[in-house]
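Lecture notes, continued. The same structure-token format from the folding unit now serves as the input rather than the output. Read the line below as a description of shape only.
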């Protein structure tokens, strides 16, 4: 709902600016100004609006972490099971929960009776191999 209000306000502001530019261009043309000035101004406006909309789309698609402090709540491990679905183990305090996450909802699958230990929550293979290589390079230097 908030995103729709954002887009509507952005489009409304663009329309107001366009009508203001059109009236200013009519005054310039009446005073003997060049029609190319109007085209350059309108082209610049369209370019700026396209850049703003493009950046908004990129930020929406990026997984930007929340700036809110989330102490005591973290995702321990997750695996994708579809294009927008995944299964995750979430730790809240000392308890861990297995949850299913879709684009529409989050469902509790079960509470883990025996939480995963830190040794079971290992790094992915690539991350562990990269850290080994980095350690070897630091020892060789």
């Amino acid at each position: 709902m908030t995103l729709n209000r954002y887009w509507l306000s952005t489009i409304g502001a663009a329309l107001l600016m366009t009508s203001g530019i059109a009236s200013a261009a009519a005054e310039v043309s009446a005073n003997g100004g060049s029609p190319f000035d109007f085209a350059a101004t309108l082209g610049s406006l369209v370019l700026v609006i396209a850049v703003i909309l493009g950046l908004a789309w990129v930020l929406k698609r990026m997984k930007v972490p929340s700036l809110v402090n989330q102490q005591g709540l973290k995702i321990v491990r997750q695996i994708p099971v579809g294009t927008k679905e995944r299964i995750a183990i979430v730790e809240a305090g000392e308890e861990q929960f297995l949850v299913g996450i879709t684009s529409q909802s989050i469902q509790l699958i079960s509470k883990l009776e025996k939480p995963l230990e830190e040794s079971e929550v290992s790094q992915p293979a690539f991350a562990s191999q990269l850290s080994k290589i980095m350690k070897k390079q630091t020892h060789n230097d």
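Point for the exam: The beta strands are 73-80, 86-92, 95-101, 106-111.
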